[in-house]
Amino acid sequence: MDNAADAWELPEPMRSTLLAWIAAVLVALFAHAARAADEDPLASAEARFHAGESNEEHGAYPEALTDYRAVMDAVPGSRWAVRASDRIEWIRSRSEGDFAPLRRLEQVRRDPDLAADPGAIDALARDAEGFPPGLVRMEARMLVAEAWLGRMHRRADAIRELVLVRDDPKTDPLTSRLAERALIDAYVSDGRIDEAIAEASQRSARLDPKFVRQVKRLALRRMVNRFAAVVLVAFGVFAIVGLVRAGRKRTLGQAWSALRELAPAALGFVAFVAIAGGLLASQYESGNATPFFLLGAAVLPLVLVARAWGAVGSQTRAARMGRALLCAVTVMATAFVLLEKVYPEYLVGFGL
């Protein structure tokens, strides 16, 4: 047995060579396994991109730029490289003041509690006055203006901020259009129709032509509104005067009798206007039945007052025609005032 074992035993030089070869093979196998176990380039780029996002979230913008550039170098042309390029451009375009203004803006913009805090918005507005010219100052002012226009109801202050955004040479075209439209809407809400029309006319190149036409029609709407107010006052005055005269002549009983006869028909007519109109409007996706219900509620007392006035007023042909015309115009004026106050967007369909 010992002689057989000795026959299989390799000489020392050959054994060393064989062991060295086996070791080399194992090392190569382990290296290959390690490379195979490592992440592929796209996965590595994705991880680096998310690291950049994390740095952005924490205000570490130089570090975020480093991460995004590494993504572009690792997998150029990939979707992660495209996204990294967009983020690089966004950050670099807001690098004024060594990123300090951007950190201040993002502190408020990324925190819903701060964005809804009047004190935090006021502080940001003050800080923005000291920001160097650039996109960050413009965006900070826009954020402040939107907060003041919305939940904080400080329209006058918001208008001032929007004017600053409008006149800022660093404002990009999209934000400029948004600021212009918000400014005009604020003027309209504030009742400053002439200023809204002038703004829309002077800056029409930045605005949608349809929107400019709608703003210019506000002058006509204001005229109709004033006419409607005159009609309603006239109806009320003439009706009261007629009823007072009837009271002095002791003929109000005729008015009560006329009202008792008309009441059922008036209720039926008003119910038909409200319900039928409401059902018709509700058939459309953007329709709303509420205006018809409000109109019915408003027209009922007008119809009753008109009937009482007609019963005790002059019965000449001219007087009856005048009352009928005034009553008809009063109903239209009432409908206009209701829509203008509650659903002004409906008036656009009538060219107002």
Discrete helix count: 17
Instruction: Indicate the overall shape.
Output: elongated
- Give the uncertain stretches in residue-range form: 1-8, 29-38
Instruction: State the separation between the terminal residues, measured CA to CA.
Output: 116 Å
State the helicity in percent bands: over 70%
Q: Class by helix and strand content? A: mainly alpha
Strand tally, please? 0
Major beta sheet, specifics? none
Strand content: under 5%
Radius of gyration, rounded? 39 Å
Mean pLDDT over the full residue set? 82
As for the number of domains, it is 3
Task: Give a structural overview.
There is one protein chain. The chain is an all-alpha fold and 352 residues long. The chain has 17 helices and no strands. The protein has helices spanning 2-8, 12-37, 41-57, 61-74, 79-92, 100-109, 112-115, 118-129, 135-149, 155-167, 173-189, 193-202, 209-216, 218-248, 252-282, 290-312, 317-342. The longest helix is centred in the middle third of the chain and has 31 residues, at 218-248. It is elongated, with a radius of gyration of 39 Å. The N and C termini lie far apart (116 Å).
Provide the descriptors you would attach to this structure in a database record.
mainly alpha, 3 domains, Serine Threonine Protein Phosphatase 5, Tetratricopeptide repeat, 17 helices, 352 residues, disordered N terminus, 0% strand
